[in-house]
Amino acid sequence: MTEQTEPTEPTIPEQEPVPAKKKSSPLGRVAFLILTALCFAYLYYRLNGAAMRSGVSLPEYMADVFAAVEWVPWLALMIGYSLFYFLIDTLVVTRALNWFVAPIRYKNILPIRASAYIISIFNEQIGKGAMAYYLNKRDKIPGWEVGSVMLFIMFCEIFYLLVWATIGFVFSAGELPPAFQILPYISVVALVVLVLWILYFNGTILPNNKFRERRLLDAFRQATPIHYVLFFLLRSPALIAAIVVYTTALNLFGVEASILTLLPYLPVIFFAAAVPTPMRAAAITIWVVLFPENEGAMAAFGFVQHNFFILFNALIGLVFWRRAQRELFA
Questions:
Q1: Which of these, 237, 265, 300, 302, lies nearest to 67 by C-alpha position?
Q2: For 283-289, which contacts have Cβ atoms below 8 Å and span 24 or more sequence positions?
Q3: Contact predicate 102/141, CB 8 Å
Q4: Cα–Cα dist 33/70, whole Å
Q5: Euclidean distance between CA atoms 110 and 246, whole angstroms
Q6: What are the pLDDT digits (tens) for 143-183?
Q7: Are 265 and 290 in contact (CB under 8 A)?
Q8: N or C: lower Cβ tally within 10 Å for the chain?
């Protein structure tokens, strides 16, 4: 990797005019709240039914579930996985910035990526926006350039998760719920969309269309098919590790599971968890839907697993927070 050279004179990046902020629609917030309420209502219905079948109250039922978990090995497992994910996640961001913007060293991205995890507690996409602001202030990189890279990463993550879900379907199609039978059709449509997307941005189709010239789409104009392949290869170790970790963690919660069982499930759950907060409630609920014979253990697992991951990542962010602040306001 080439070293980033210091400019002799700092330059002020050209900024695009900022449009007036629109008020968010209350209908969207209401819909999210309704979705969250439906998820928790469903969880209550399933857990209360399981408690009644066991002849105990719901609090007693859940207390027994939590008491049966092997917490010490689970904690060590999740700490190791969270740190590994952080290193891979930072590597992906570093390489994408080097591809499309400027040569920035891996160690200089660590505090930015870690600090963004604090904001990602509320919304992952806002966390990526904070990274764009950080690089603009610290390295004088125009915000639209970094924003373009963040859009590229978010776009690729959708297809990366879909590819792994499809791989899981190939190996265990007969054991999946009927709803998963639509996955091959979704994968074919997504492949067609991706091919058309690449052909559009390299000018092969609709060459006179000006939409691709927008600044925020600059990374897509620069991207070649090899960039999409490299993104998949760089990001995949985190998901492979997650499948092993989550399989082991499920067994520590008293639920028998195999790697092939989780291979198609986990990408779908991660996709649901990546979108705004109400869908995170849906991601927790999915565990109960996928393992209906273990309602209590799966509800506890989904809640603890997801929240530990985002909170521990935020703790990593706090470790780098002072360094990030020094760099940002130096």
A1: 300
A2: 284/39, 284/43, 285/39, 285/42, 285/43, 288/42, 288/43, 288/46, 289/177
A3: yes
A4: 34
A5: 25
A6: 788 889 989 998 999 899 888 888 888 887 777 777 778 88
A7: yes
A8: C
